Amino acid sequence: MSSNDFIQNATIRRMDPTRDLNAVANLMEAAFELKKDPEGHVIIENMRQHARMIAANDATLLDKLTVKASWSDGFVFEDQNKIVGNITLIPHMDGFKRVIMIANVSVDDAYRRRGIARALTLQALQRCRMTGVREVYLQVRHDNQAAIQLYLDLGFRHLHSVNVWRLRQSASGLDQLGLNAHELEDGYTLRYRRFGDWQKHKAWLAECYPQKTRWYSGLAFRQLSPLCWLNPLAWLQLMQMEHFALSRDGELVGVLGLQSRAPQVDMLWLALPEDLDAAEENKRAALLLRTFVRERWNHGKVNLEFPMGRATAGIQEAGFKLAHDLDWMALTL
After folding, report:
1. What pTM did the predictor assign?
2. Which CATH superfamily is domain 3-133 in?
């Protein structure tokens, strides 16, 4: 059977969360090895829990509407009524502009290299055009060269690459983190960010977290300005944030922002100049992050994203583990 025959004899249809969740959960778990990923495993179990709720005899119309609202738009690829491929379309707002994030592109191992991922992506892009969306984004594993080439062939362009770091409590690692968090070196001081720090902080944030994909962070970066305390509508987000400033001989050299998002995973936003040599960049990252671990960490889950390859040794020194290397890609329709 050729790949063309396979596509013609199969079916691509809209995902129906009320009957497809279990099959899609199984597909995603296998494709992305989510059994090894605690956060991914939570998502999968949540999908299965919703599937069980719908399967129950006492599931109400409200239950079904809740499940549909909980799981975003997408498509499945079926071969003889078996779901062997999936793609998810997640809507976001970039200011007043609606954009789409393509996610969870997964194909059954036995069906790979038959054009299914390509067919699903083309179907997703067609839907974006029909609904008036003009900007489409995705994240792909940096080492997944086959997927990257597929997206390049479809017109996507590479934006930037990030390391995703995680800090987790563990019985074996907690004591070691405390030992690593020694006092600041001579000449360095740590304090809360001041009003006069904002211009440098703003510039470093722009270097580390590009404007083009900030909508995905769930953080309104403009509200990090100290002036936002004058706006009562920004107070809720501002109360979730703390900013720690690192100085050397009185000069600002780095800022670390803590975004408390309980019960979700807390986020750290590390802002450093991009023109530092590797040794100095690692030192500043380690000093900021080790102090956070020692003085402010509540032993909950914390994530940090930072440009790929930057401050790697310093971040690891503070006890963070690399979770993913991801490439951001985008397409304008």
Report:
1. 0.86
2. Gcn5-related N-acetyltransferase (GNAT) (3.40.630.30)
